[in-house]
Predict the structure of Pyridoxal phosphate homeostasis protein.
Amino acid sequence: MTAPFPVGPQLVSRIDEVLSRIDSAATQAGRDGAGITVLLATKTRTPQQIAAVIEVLRERGRTIAVGENRAQEMAKHEDPLLAGNGVPRHFIGRLQTNKARDVVAFAELIHSVDRDDIAEALERRAEMAGLHREVLVQVNTSGEESKGGYDPTPEAVIPVVQRLRGSQVLRPVGLMTIGANTSDDAAVRASLRSLRELRDEVRERLGLDDFEQLSMGMSGDLEIAVEEGATIVRVGSAIFGPRPA
Ligand SMILES: *Cc1c(COP(=O)(O)O)cnc(C)c1O
């Protein structure tokens, strides 16, 4: 198959670099790197750029997903270069209730249920559209005020998971966090580890075998995330290059 777009050597080497970072961290932790989903955080990238990366990741045999963090960027995935490519679409950004309908239509997994009114809006819209969607509960593990999410305690997270479990259309499958924004690796590790511990506790207390996803780790902290049990890493700039300012 010939690519309808150029896959430059620089892009290929950035992708391989990310995959080798994932694989070494996985090996370190006694895990299989190929089992970790690489979610491309596509932000403002063009359909051409996104399609090129998808092609390389597919050649490498990776489990992939694309993730948008802004509702207004979702339409670009209807571009002929991307539409119908079979790559699961996720939503990873801060949600607004007035965008719930569009997000439900777009994403099969929504990472960012960070407050009760969002859970309600997604449920209502999924019911109206007749769609079943998986969701993650976003947890604020860093204590940074700019970040959304429930407090990192079972008392805060269990009620929302239970509420979602009661839904006919939404299925909670795990937790998501944005790690501490610091160069202090120990602080990053503590925040990411707390997500895993919280998932384990929720899973055990509620007896949920299928509550297993841990969406954590970005370009700067993906090794730590993989070592701490990430099942989905969300990567943007390490693959696409620095974002235009
Ligand atoms: C942009 C984004 C990422 C990826 O960030 P990079 O540092 O570019 O890898 C991950 N998660 C969320 C929620 C994002 O918005």
Summary: Residues 9-240 form a domain with the TIM Barrel fold (CATH 3.20.20.10). Residues 127 and 182 are 40 Å apart (CA to CA).
